[in-house]
């Protein structure tokens, strides 16, 4: 297990572009306001849809009196669950037999299961009029209110109301799995530490909310759906299946997508209901989610209860762990990845960069009357990393070991990789210790400790928090199986050189801010030997891009990048073959550089790519059997694992509990870097989302099941004044398994930042014996941790 | 539905007059986007927190979701579409692409207008002043690092342009 | 999130606005900056049939510094007030507090008078008004009356203004030369409404505290003055304000409040931190006053 050199069949051509901080080619349209998102699209005779949503967490729908609406069927239309009863419900795709299924009608038929569950859709010629009608109709829905189930605890209490009566339980999954010999580990332990941790429920909150525009051309029998989705092809398959349409009669377009972060990966019920309504009405119908609706009804994420027992030696060696991971799935075990998306992924990723050789995991998920939990950047991994890194710091503090030192003692060395974790994750390569050491050197750890001590004497409480992470990337079939939620997946790209010698790259991954048009163009430019300006990347339209699953789980750079590199290599060969005929040379002796093909060592014997491409298409003397210069390639990669370390320096106002972040240093190792500028910015953005979860963000529900965070005045996402400067440093351990050694990245910051912040606060408040048991670290909770008010559980 | 009375309103947007027939309740953001056809201005929250809909009203950065179009009659409105001239990015736009100050682009229009307003009032801001000046514009992608950097670069470019204008 | 229908009235005079308001006091809303009202309308939490718009009225945006007073017209924008050198000279406390009101775009449109009339108990302007003291000029079709700051705030989002009255101006008393002030609030994020905040204004005469005004906001249904703390301080020599006295003031401040819990903080937190901020308010105000004396 020492082979870390990229094998030749995995090599990609890396020349002038890969690895350079190239400016983004897509920027001008965003900067000039000409980029078009779903809300910006308008079609002739377009109608506007507005949802009527349940005001009750748990209720039976008795009646919807549509007769209150003047102009019904003429200027206003209404669709209820009854109208869509023939549309099959949405259901998860996880291949686990003992997971109970919770079919979700795209508009509720009998029962509503959270505040915001869809009850009806009102359609009118204008958004304002549609909202007027929706307001009227909301008052004309009769409910039988049922007892709410506001929490996992309530869900499993004796006599709890059932969200799905036929299941006979609200707990839809519980499974224990043993890895290694925990009995032996605990028997050998000097100390056992325990924690009960509540990871907060927060969410993606992209700047662009969800939105769908659907149009059915009856004469063509063609449905076109524009949706703010991360997965246009997958959505096409789901829409075709749900609506009973032949898939070739459905076209899905993801126009500009204003951020997704995983939330726009699963199929929203609205993405089925709106096309259905457009089919019925024969007119274009647009639904744009507003922010209030988004905070009520869009999927939420990350809430978990994690109970740990950790067996350690007096030297701080982690001998074994028993962990219970309980997910709060909300009203439905949501489609695609189910309610296990949090607890199962947390359990499988728990060991992180450490040598933990015995681990019992118990994974459970319950239904509650809240908006469902689904994907959001760092699924499961965030909660696992948070609880593990907090626990490691607590153990270090208890044992009197420095937090850096305890990590050194347990961390996997790079020469131990590839390494299969006790949960079956095959870490391909990495720089776990190197990242930690570089981070500590960058923050000047010893100097910080000296300053911390000095300022503490003045009554100032500074803290330093470390959070090391391993991030599973390259989500193909292998990664999802190693994550514990098996789901087949792969992607495809088509690279085509046209007769004039310019290049079109059509990819099935679907960008929503990550700069794919730039990164893929860099790969294709190097692969073909052309200028980036001669490459155009297209995506997001099922009509013009090859089939594939789209963009989520840090997979695009690895999978999309590899498919572009492979297809480019094919096309390069095709070009060389034609050029060889033209130049009467051996293809192996030819090189392509800056769009010119020449005989190696004899640059005067050359043809431009334009000349060769023209000949390839039109010159029967030299063209090959297949004149088109094109190739489509697929990739279903082996799992890869990025890694890194985030260090947060913070100060706590011991009188008010306000936490101020002073500085953040992040080390990121994602293997081969395509565009360092983009990588750096992805790390920064992810970290700030993690800061949101650590300090500000939480979807709060009252004991009555009512959501209390339904505006941006209550659901608090970080602003420019809440974040300190973030320094990002790169290490590069190419994957020995993946094409080009690319690993993918983008989630590590979110995964690591909450623990780094929590550890910084706990470090600052070490004199008070503070132990962080939940997030966010609002000032109220911080004062409780210090014992200045009430109890930490209050 | 009973139709609400409409009125004719004349708006001056990026120097051009637009006459629109609208209900009194239509927000400036909706009228810019739907009646004038300038969809660069975005709606991110419609309750005055996110800043995506920021436009300049007589030079001041305001939230166009919290102003009714009828209230903007007679005012000079500037939107993102008016920044570039003949396809050439202005110095703020250029600074944002040079410094990777945007990812998904949804907050960008509002951000650019806020930066213009900030630099008009404070041409040489400190990093703290930039952060405070932009804290009414949410961004979910960048973590603000490169937005702050872009703004500082735009300020420097503006300064350079002013001194070369003085020199010539 | 689109507002329900209403009729917009672009008023050209106060009289026109008062006439409209008088015709349908309960169905009408006065709008100046609209930065609190319009979000409520967009969320359909407010649905006035008539919107009486003061913005077009000439001369209503005055910023007038008088002898011992500062008068702001109903449409004087927060940003204009914040940037006014005259205001900073007369009432630096107001300038400092304005920097905490919302965000730049909000202050460009929002008005000081509007914020006071909206009477959010966690907002900055009502607390500053209550601390400085002064009066609201309330006009109706029947005439004009003055409402003193201490009589103005009734309850959560409720003031002494009648539905047919318009606050055409607010006059602040500006402190004299030997006073010092402090403004501080704890928020979840910069620009948010306060979880809890303090406004303090201490005046020294002959080395002793001659006047003490302390207001807590975010701790009750309205901003509240702290008479027990104020009484503790008046007459005390500046040099005698020591840690014990500050601790006692903090206890008195906490004891004066019965704040409730919400998603941002518990009542316990607010009570505790009200004490912390009160002590800080006294200390900093005294430093400022001593420096000027």
UniProtKB/TrEMBL annotation, chain A:
Tagged with keyword Oxidoreductase: yes
Membrane-spanning parts: none
Record key words, sorted: Molybdenum, Oxidoreductase
Domain Aldehyde oxidase/xanthine dehydrogenase a/b hammerhead: start-end pairs: 32-147
Keyword Ion transport: no
InterPro entries: Ald_Oxase/Xan_DH_a/b, Ald_Oxase/Xan_DH_a/b_sf, Ald_Oxase/xanthine_DH-like, AldOxase/xan_DH_MoCoBD1, AldOxase/xan_DH_MoCoBD2, AldOxase/xan_DH_Mopterin-bd_sf
Entries under Pfam families matching the protein: Ald_Xan_dh_C (PF01315), MoCoBD_1 (PF02738), MoCoBD_2 (PF20256)
Superkingdom assignment: Bacteria
GO molecular function: iron ion binding; oxidoreductase activity
Cofactor: Mo-molybdopterin cytosine dinucleotide
SUPFAM superfamilies per UniProt: CO dehydrogenase molybdoprotein N-domain-like (SSF54665), Molybdenum cofactor-binding domain (SSF56003)
The name this protein goes by in its record: Xanthine dehydrogenase family protein
Organism: Pseudonocardia bannensis
Lineage: Bacteria, Bacillati, Actinomycetota, Actinomycetes, Pseudonocardiales
TrEMBL record, chain B:
Domain 2Fe-2S ferredoxin-type per the UniProt entry, residue ranges: 7-83
Top-level taxon of origin: Bacteria
Pathway: Alkaloid degradation; nicotine degradation
CDD domains: fer2
Record keywords: 2Fe-2S, Iron, Iron-sulfur, Metal-binding, Oxidoreductase
GO molecular function: 2 iron, 2 sulfur cluster binding; metal ion binding; oxidoreductase activity
Protein name per the record: (2Fe-2S)-binding protein
Organism annotation: Pseudonocardia bannensis
TrEMBL record, chain C:
MF-aspect GO terms: FAD binding; oxidoreductase activity
Residue span, FAD-binding PCMH-type domain: 1-177
Keyword terms: FAD, Flavoprotein, Oxidoreductase
Pfam family, one: FAD_binding_5
SMART domains recorded: CO_deh_flav_C
Source species, domain of life: Bacteria
Protein name: Xanthine dehydrogenase family protein subunit M
Highest classification ranks of the organism: Bacteria, Bacillati, Actinomycetota, Actinomycetes, Pseudonocardiales
């Amino acid at each position: 297990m020492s082979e870390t050199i990229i094998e030749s069949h995995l090599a990609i051509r890396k020349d002038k572009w890969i690895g350079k901080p190239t400016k983004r080619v897509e920027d001008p349209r965003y900067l000039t306001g000409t980029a078009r998102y779903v809300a910006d699209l308008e079609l002739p005779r377009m109608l506007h849809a507005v949802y009527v949503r349940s005001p009750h967490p748990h209720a039976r729908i008795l009646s919807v009196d549509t007769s209150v609406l003047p102009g019904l069927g003429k200027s206003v239309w209404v669709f209820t669950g009854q109208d869509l009863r023939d549309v099959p419900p949405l259901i998860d795709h996880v291949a686990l037999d003992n997971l109970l299924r919770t079919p979700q009608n795209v508009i509720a038929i009998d029962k509503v299961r959270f505040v915001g569950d869809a009850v009806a859709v009102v359609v009118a010629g204008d958004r304002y009029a549609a909202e007027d009608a929706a307001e009227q109709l909301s008052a004309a829905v009769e409910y039988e209110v049922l007892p709410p189930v506001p929490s996992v605890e309530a869900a499993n209490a004796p006599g709890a109301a059932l969200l799905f009566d036929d299941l006979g339980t609200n707990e839809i999954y519980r499974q224990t799995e043993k890895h290694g010999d925990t009995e032996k580990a605990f028997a050998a332990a000097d100390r056992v530490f325990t924690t009960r941790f509540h990871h907060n429920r927060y969410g993606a909150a992209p700047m662009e909310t969800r939105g769908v525009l659907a149009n059915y051309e009856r004469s063509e029998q063609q449905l076109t759906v524009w949706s703010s989705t991360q997965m246009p092809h997958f959505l096409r398959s789901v829409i075709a299946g749900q609506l009973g349409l032949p898939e070739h009669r459905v076209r899905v377009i993801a126009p500009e997508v204003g951020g997704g972060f995983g939330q726009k990966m699963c199929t929203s019920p609205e993405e089925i209901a709106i096309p259905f309504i457009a089919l019925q009405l024969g007119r274009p119908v647009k639904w744009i989610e507003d922010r209030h609706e988004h905070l009520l009804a869009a999927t939420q994420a990350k809430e978990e209860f994690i109970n740990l027992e950790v067996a350690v030696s007096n030297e701080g060696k982690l001998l074994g762990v028993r962990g219970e991971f309980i997910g709060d799935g909300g009203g439905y075990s949501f489609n695609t990845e189910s309610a296990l998306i949090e607890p199962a992924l947390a359990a499988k990723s728990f060991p992180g960069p450490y040598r933990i050789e015995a681990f019992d995991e118990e994974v459970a998920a319950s239904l509650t009357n809240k908006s469902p939990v689904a994907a959001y950047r760092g699924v499961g991994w965030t909660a696992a990393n948070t609880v593990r890194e907090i626990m490691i710091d607590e153990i270090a503090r208890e044992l009197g070991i420095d937090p850096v030192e305890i990590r050194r003692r347990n961390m996997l060395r790079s020469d131990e990789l590839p390494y299969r974790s006790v949960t079956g994750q095959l870490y391909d390569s990495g720089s776990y210790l190197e990242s930690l050491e570089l981070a500590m050197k960058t923050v000047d750890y010893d100097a910080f400790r000296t300053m911390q001590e000095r300022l503490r004497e003045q009554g100032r409480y500074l803290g330093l928090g470390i959070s090391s992470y391993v991030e599973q990337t390259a989500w193909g079939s292998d990664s999802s199986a190693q994550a514990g939620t098996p789901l087949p997946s792969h992607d495809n790209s088509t690279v085509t050189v046209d007769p004039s010698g310019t290049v079109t790259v059509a990819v099935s991954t679907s960008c929503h801010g990550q700069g794919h048009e730039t990164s893929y163009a860099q790969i294709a430019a190097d692969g073909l030997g052309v200028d980036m300006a001669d490459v155009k990347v297209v995506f997001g339209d099922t009509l013009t891009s090859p089939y594939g699953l789209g963009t989520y789980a840090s997979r695009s750079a690895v999978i999309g990048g590899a498919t572009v590199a492979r297809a480019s290599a094919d096309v390069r060969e095709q070009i060389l073959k034609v050029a060889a005929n033209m130049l009467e040379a051996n293809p192996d002796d030819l090189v392509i550089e800056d769009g010119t093909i020449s005989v190696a060592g004899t640059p005067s014997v050359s043809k431009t790519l334009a000349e060769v491409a023209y000949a390839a298409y039109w010159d029967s003397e030299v063209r090959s059997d297949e004149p088109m210069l094109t190739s489509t390639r697929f990739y279903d990669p082996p799992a890869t694992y990025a890694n890194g370390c985030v260090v947060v320096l913070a100060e706590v106002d011991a009188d008010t509990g306000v936490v101020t972040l002073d500085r953040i240093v992040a080390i990121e190792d994602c293997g081969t870097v395509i565009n360092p500028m983009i990588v750096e910015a992805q790390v920064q953005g992810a970290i700030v989302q993690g800061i949101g979860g650590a300090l500000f963000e939480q979807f709060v529900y009252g004991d009555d099941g009512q959501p209390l965070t339904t505006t941006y005045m209550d659901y608090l996402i970080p602003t420019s004044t809440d974040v300190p400067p973030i320094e990002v440093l790169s290490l590069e351990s190419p994957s020995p398994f993946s094409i080009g050694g690319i690993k993918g990245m983008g989630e590590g910051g979110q995964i690591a930042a909450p623990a780094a912040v929590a550890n910084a606060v706990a470090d600052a408040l070490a004199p008070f014996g503070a132990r962080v048991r939940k997030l966010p670290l609002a000032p109220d909770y911080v004062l409780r941790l210090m014992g200045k008010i009430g109890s930490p559980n209050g | 539905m009973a139709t609400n009375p409409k009125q004719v309103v004349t708006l001056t947007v990026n120097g051009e007059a637009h006459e629109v027939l609208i209900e009194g309740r239509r927000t400036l953001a909706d009228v810019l986007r739907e009646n004038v056809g300038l969809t660069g201005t975005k709606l991110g929250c419609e309750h005055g927190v996110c800043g995506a809909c920021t436009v300049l009203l007589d030079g001041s950065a305001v939230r166009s979701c919290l102003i009714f179009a009828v209230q903007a009659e007679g005012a000079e409105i500037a939107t993102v579409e008016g920044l570039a001239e003949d396809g050439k990015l202005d110095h703020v736009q250029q600074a944002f692409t040079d410094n990777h100050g945007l990812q998904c682009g949804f907050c960008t229009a509002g951000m650019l207008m806020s930066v213009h307003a900030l630099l008009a009032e404070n041409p040489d801001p400190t990093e703290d002043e930039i952060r405070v000046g932009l804290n009414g514009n949410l961004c979910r992608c960048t973590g603000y690092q490169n937005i702050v950097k872009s703004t500082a670069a735009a300020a420097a470019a503006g300064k350079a342009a002013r001194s070369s204008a003085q020199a010539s | 999130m689109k507002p329900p229908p209403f009729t917009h009235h672009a008023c050209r005079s106060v009289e026109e606005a008062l006439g409209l308001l008088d015709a349908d006091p309960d169905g009408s809303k006065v709008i100046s900056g609209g930065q609190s009202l319009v979000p409520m309308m967009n969320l359909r939490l407010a649905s006035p049939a008539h919107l009486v718009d003061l913005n077009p009225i000439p001369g209503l945006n005055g910023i007038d510094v008088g002898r011992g007073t500062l008068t702001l017209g109903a449409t004087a924008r927060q940003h204009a007030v914040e940037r006014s050198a005259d205001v900073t000279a007369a009432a630096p406390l107001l300038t400092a507090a304005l920097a905490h009101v919302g965000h730049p775009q909000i202050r460009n449109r929002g008005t000081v008078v509007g914020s006071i009339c909206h009477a959010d108990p966690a907002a900055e302007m009502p607390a500053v008004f209550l601390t400085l003291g002064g009066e609201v000029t309330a006009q109706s079709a029947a005439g004009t009356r003055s409402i003193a700051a201490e009589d103005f705030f009734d309850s959560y989002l409720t003031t002494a203004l009648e539905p047919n009255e318009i606050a055409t101006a607010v006059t602040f008393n500006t402190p004299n030369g030997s006073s010092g002030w402090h403004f501080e609030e704890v928020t979840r994020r910069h620009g948010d409404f306060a979880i809890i905040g303090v406004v303090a204004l201490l005046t020294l005469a002959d080395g002793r505290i001659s006047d003490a005004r302390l207001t807590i906001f975010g701790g009750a249904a309205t901003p509240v003055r702290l008479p027990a703390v104020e009484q503790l301080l008046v007459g005390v020599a500046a040099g005698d304000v020591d840690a014990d006295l500050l601790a006692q003031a903090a206890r008195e401040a906490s004891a004066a409040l019965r704040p409730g819990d919400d998603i941002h903080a518990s009542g316990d937190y607010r009570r505790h931190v009200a004490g912390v901020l009160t002590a800080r308010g006294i200390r900093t105000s005294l430093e400022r006053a001593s420096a000027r004396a």
